[in-house]
Amino acid sequence: MDVKSWTYIIVGLSFASYIGIAIWCKAKSTKEFYVAGGGVSPIANGMATAADWMSAASFISMAGLIAFSGYGGSVFLMGWTGGYVLLALMLAPYLRKYGKFTVPEFIGERYYSKTARVVAVVCLIIISVTYVIGQMKGVGVAFSRFLETDYNTGLFVGMGIVFFYAVLGGMKGITYTQIVQYVVLIFAYTVPAIFISLELTGNPIPQLGLGGNVDGIPLLQKLDTVITDLGFSQYTTSTMGSKLNMFAYTLSLMIGTAGLPHVIIRFFTVPKVSDARLSAGWALVFIAILYTTAPAVAAMARLNLTQTIQPGAVGTPEGSLEYNKRPEWFKNWEKTGLLKYEDKNMDGHIQYYNDSNEAFAQSGWQGNEMTTVDKDIIVLANPEIAKLPGWVVALVVAGGLAAALSTAAGLLLAISSAISHDLLKGILKPEITEKEELNASRVAMVGAIALAGYFGLNPPDFAAGTVAIAFGLAASSIFPVLMMGIFSKRMNKQGAIAGMIAGLGVTLLYVFQHKGIMFIPNTSFLGTMKENWFLGITPNAFGAVGAIVNFAVAFAVSSNTEEPTQEAKDLVERIRTPGN
Questions:
Q1: What is the pLDDT of residues 490-529, one digit of tens each?
Q2: Which of 227, 257, 361, 572 has the fewest Cβ atoms surrounding its Cβ within 10 A?
Q3: 318 Cβ partners below 8 Å, 6+ apart?
Q4: Is residue 211 located within the same domain as residue 125?
């Protein structure tokens, strides 16, 4: 059976299960729509949280980023993993003890202010829309390969699938769908990794295979040799800017993780505070399976990619001209527009090297012919590059779709609940019925899907890069106000509001200066030149600075205004008192 047939079978079965669950778990009340009725078990919630957390950025983009950035890509592993630990220990149990539906609702009550709640809603929408753009990029990449069509068509198909099961089932449907999606995505990620590790190193455990040998040479040493001979930076030493930038990037991802509303809301779905802690522990176990596999997938994919495109080219540029033309997997990905090459010297072969390598230029090559190599294709293309069985290739496509769709659904729910529950029910029309609120939630989700799809057609960056901006926005706005709301009785509404506006504002300004206004091309004020960066910190890492601004402004304003109400102090005392 060919790859296309396997893909239709495996993806079709997985999607049938998602849609079936959405119909079976259709939300009939606002509590079921927002928090799945509050009765999800810790293990089930841990698995659903892992699926919600491990987005297209984790499944599709992270290994691709590490593959091309080498050591520097470790900031994503450290930041995202550390951030989840921070969320599990410092925020989730206390917010579950609070016991209501949304993050803006907590902020509004803790800071006794409708204005604070509205500002939190605005922050949440900006964060979630930015984040969901990254998921839509992943959906478009996976569907375009699956359907063998262009990226835009793949994106529209994915939007339709998300629309059906997210709008119909709400949090209840999303939770049980995400459990199935976790099973799909984790098998899809680890099975090909086991095959490839066994093939390259003889070790079936990818985490150990990363330290194994290829042809008697340590894998990472061989990879360093292969890519440096082609003029690229050494894999094991390349970084993402200065040490300060790597620290800021890691910190931004870490505290941004702890401030993501769509992840926090998952801890409102369990019956008790103790269950929130247990589900966080289970989620860490489920997440670790993928996150410890990703570095091995990245290194092995980069080695396979380079050697498959250009076998024999390393060290012998003239001899490489006798080797293969485009392999079959290359032709398949060309159809998506995410992989392109230009035959500059008209010899029918692919010359893939760094233009600064003079030895290749002297051999008659006219320059690097790989004009487009989208980082987000690496994980999905890896099984094809390694010539694994068709069912493995199909499984990876299904896993990539599961990862992108699970997180997209969680984000869209966070957006719709903020609009319907916090803005409409909480502020604008408190008298609306539960049925009207539920309908408003679904209408809001439809609008969010349309907006995310629009930006997904013109994403500002690769999936992990776009998601990193969302983490920076969460780090600079939501995380500080939650931490101060839980651990500082002195923090008042004036400080919280000023801090959120200052932190989010300075981060957005910095991103807009270097990446453009609302991701519209050619609208950046300063361009992307490194000399224009503050202390060499990239826009994707600037959330850490925004968080510092938020804390500083909040404490300064709070110290010079009146103390919070006694009710606010009592709320802090109540959520920090042990018990359910």
A1: 999 999 999 999 999 999 888 877 554 444 444 333 344 4
A2: 361
A3: 363
A4: yes
